[in-house]
From TrEMBL:
<dbReference type="GO" id="GO:0046872">
    <property type="term" value="F:metal ion binding"/>
</dbReference>
<comment type="similarity">
    <text>Belongs to the prokaryotic molybdopterin-containing oxidoreductase family. NasA/NapA/NarB subfamily.</text>
</comment>
<dbReference type="GO" id="GO:0016491">
    <property type="term" value="F:oxidoreductase activity"/>
</dbReference>
<dbReference type="GO" id="GO:0042128">
    <property type="term" value="P:nitrate assimilation"/>
</dbReference>
<keyword id="KW-0408">Iron</keyword>
<dbReference type="GO" id="GO:0051539">
    <property type="term" value="F:4 iron, 4 sulfur cluster binding"/>
</dbReference>
<protein>
    <submittedName>
        <fullName>Nitrate reductase</fullName>
    </submittedName>
</protein>
<keyword id="KW-0479">Metal-binding</keyword>
<keyword id="KW-0411">Iron-sulfur</keyword>
<feature type="region of interest" description="Disordered">
    <location>
        <begin position="650"/>
        <end position="670"/>
    </location>
</feature>
<dbReference type="GO" id="GO:0016020">
    <property type="term" value="C:membrane"/>
</dbReference>
<keyword id="KW-0500">Molybdenum</keyword>
<dbReference type="GO" id="GO:0043546">
    <property type="term" value="F:molybdopterin cofactor binding"/>
</dbReference>
<feature type="domain" description="4Fe-4S Mo/W bis-MGD-type">
    <location>
        <begin position="1"/>
        <end position="57"/>
    </location>
</feature>
<dbReference type="GO" id="GO:0045333">
    <property type="term" value="P:cellular respiration"/>
</dbReference>
<keyword id="KW-0004">4Fe-4S</keyword>
<dbReference type="GO" id="GO:1990204">
    <property type="term" value="C:oxidoreductase complex"/>
</dbReference>
Amino acid sequence: MRTVRTTCAYCGVGCGIAAGVTGERSVQIKGDGAHPANAGKLCSKGTHLGETVSPEGRLLHPVIAGRTAGWGEALDLVSARLKACIEEHGPDSVAFYVSGQLLTEDYYVANKLMKGFIGSGNIDTNSRLCMASAVAAHNRAFGEDVVPCSYTDLEEADLVVLVGSNTAWCHPVLWQRIEESRARRGSKIVVIDPRRTETAEQADLHVAVAPDGDVALFNAVLRELKARGLVDEAYLAQHVAAPEGFWDGLEGSAESAGVSPEVFEQLVDLVAAHPKMVTMFSMGANQSAQGTDKGNAITNLHLATGRIGLPGTGPFSITGQPNAMGGREVGGLANMLACHLGFSGEELAEVADFWAAERICTGPGLKAVEMFRAVHDGRIKFLWVMATNPAVSLPDAGFVREALERCETLVVSEAIADTDTGRFAEILLPALAWGEKDGTVTNSERRVSRQRALFAAPGQAKSDWKIMSEVAARLGWGDAFAWANSAAVFREYAAMTALAAKRGKVLDLTDKAGLSDEEYEDMAPFQWGGALPLRERYPTADGKARLIAVAPIAASAVDPAFPLILNTGRYRDQWHTMTRTGWSPTLAQHRREPLAEVHPADAALYDIADAGLVKITTPSGTATFRVKVTDSQRRGEVFVPMHWTDVNAGEGRANRLPSQRVDPVSGQPGFKNSPARIEAV
Ligand code: SF4
C-alpha cells in the first residue's frame, strides 16, 4: 500500500486525507493528522470516498452527437465552433460555466482563455450559487475579497454565532472543532436559522429568524450594542469609515426579524458579554435576494465593535465547495479579473500585459442566472459547461433545461457519463475526477492544499486545464497555453498575484512562483495571508474598512395562490447532485429519498399525512416529495433537499421550484425564500 496525501473532494472545510492506495482502483481513506484543517478528522462523506472511485458510470471517451469520437475530432470541432461563433457573433456570444469542483489550475486556464484570448468576461461558476454574496460583501467592506478569519478563531472564540449554517451536517469537521472547543473551554454557540436544524438542536440559543430577517436582526443587535456603549469608538476612528447617517439609519427590529423579545434579549446579552466572537455564515445568508446586505450587516457588527483581526474574532464566510476560494483567486467569477483585480483600464492593461493577451475582455461578463437567460434568448450561442450540473442545480431548472436545449453548441466536460446536463450536450468531453486530478484547492480559511492523483486516468479522460490548452492551441494561442504540467500553471498563477500584492491586497503567492516541479509535488498546505492579524490599512482609497448602510427589504404581499415559503438545502451524507456520493451504498443509508419537511399545523391545514406524498408548486414549477411532519420547521415554511435529479429520482427535483430572483449586487439566487403551495397527492 502506498500512502498519498491529498484533499477531500467535497466541502469547503478542505480536510486533508491520507489515502492508502491498495489497488488499481481501490483506496483506504484516513484523515491526514498533519493537515491543519482537520488534524486527522473526517466526516461521513470524506470517510466513504473510497466507495466512489470505481470506473463504473464514468465518461471514458469523447462523444459527438451521441457517438464515440476521438480527441482529435472532438477538439477540432470545439475549436472550429468557437472560432466561427466569435467571428460571426463576437466574443460575447460564447460563455463558460465552470465549477468549484475544478482545481485552481483548471480555473486559471479557463479564465485566461475566456478573459484574455476569447475577449469576453463571460465565465461564471457554480460558486455564484454558493458564496458570491459574501464576496460582494467583502469587497464593499474591505476593498478586497478576503476572509479575515482562520479555523483556530472558532476555537479561540468565547461565542460562535452560526448564521444560515447547518454546520453539523454541511461542514461537519468544523462543527466537531467548535464542539470540542465548547467542551474544553465553555464557549457558547448561537444558531440563527429559520429551521431548528441538527446544529440548532445543540446550540445554547436558537434564534428562529424569519426567512430573510437577518438584516433586520443584525441591525437591531448593533443598535442595542451602541445603546449599551459597546461600540469601539477608537477602532472606528482609526480603521473604519461610516457613511453619513449610518447610526440613525439602522432599520430593523426583533419583531420585523420574526424573533420574540425574550430571544432577542438573550441574543444581545450573549453578544454583549462575549467580545471574543466569531460569526460564521453560509448558504442560508448568501442564497438570498439580499445576501450581500446580510454579509455586510454581519461585518458591520464586527467592525463597529472592533471584533476583527484579534484571535477568536471576525465575520467568517464558509464556502460550500472544495475550491470555491481558489476559483475566486484566479477570476472564476464573471465580475472579477484574475488575482482579485477589477476591470479598471489600468488593471485590464496590466493583466493583458502579463498574459500577452490576444484580446483582453472589456468588462465583467454575465453572472450565472443572466448567462442562462442569454443562452435561452440566443445571445449566447456557444456554451462550455465544466464539472457542474446546471440542469439540476440552478434555480428555475426547467427554464435552464430549455436554454440548454436551445443552445447552438453545448460542450460539457464531465467525469460522469450520464448527467442531467450531459444529456443536452452535443459534445461531451471526458474529464478527470477526484483521485485522478493533480493540482491545488483553497479552503474557506485561505489554505491552499494539494489534490494529488491516486490512480491513472480512466479511458481517455484528461485534466480540464489540458483540454482547454489543446483547444487554445488549435485557435493559434499555443504559446500562451504551453504548460508541461499543473506545476507550471500554478507557477504562472503564483507570479501573477504580484498584481494583487502591489495594490496592498492580501493575496500574494509570489514566493511560490519559483517552485520546482518537485517542490510543487511536495508542497505542504499553506494559508495565504497567514492568520491575518489586525490590519493597519485596507486596500481602499483612505486605507479604512467600510460600514455599509443596509436596510431590510420589505416583505412582499403574500400571494394567496402561494401562501407558504419554500426553503432548500442539503442532507448530511449527500453532495450536490449526487453524481459522486450517489455511488456510495453507505452514504445512501442516511436518507434514501428527498423529504419535504412540514410543520404539524400546516400538515393539518392542508390535510397532509406524515410519510404521504405531496406536490409542491411555485410560480416556476412543480415537484413531488414524501412528507416528514416536524415541528423543527416554522409554521408556514417548507424545506426540501436539493440533491435529487432526473437521473437519480425523477419527480423530486427541488430546483425546479425556486425562481430566478437574485441578489442585485452579487447575482446570487435566493434559494431559501420562494412562495409555494403544497397539496397531498
Ligand atoms: Fe470532506 Fe468537508 Fe467532510 Fe472534511 S468536512 S471530510 S472536507 S466533506
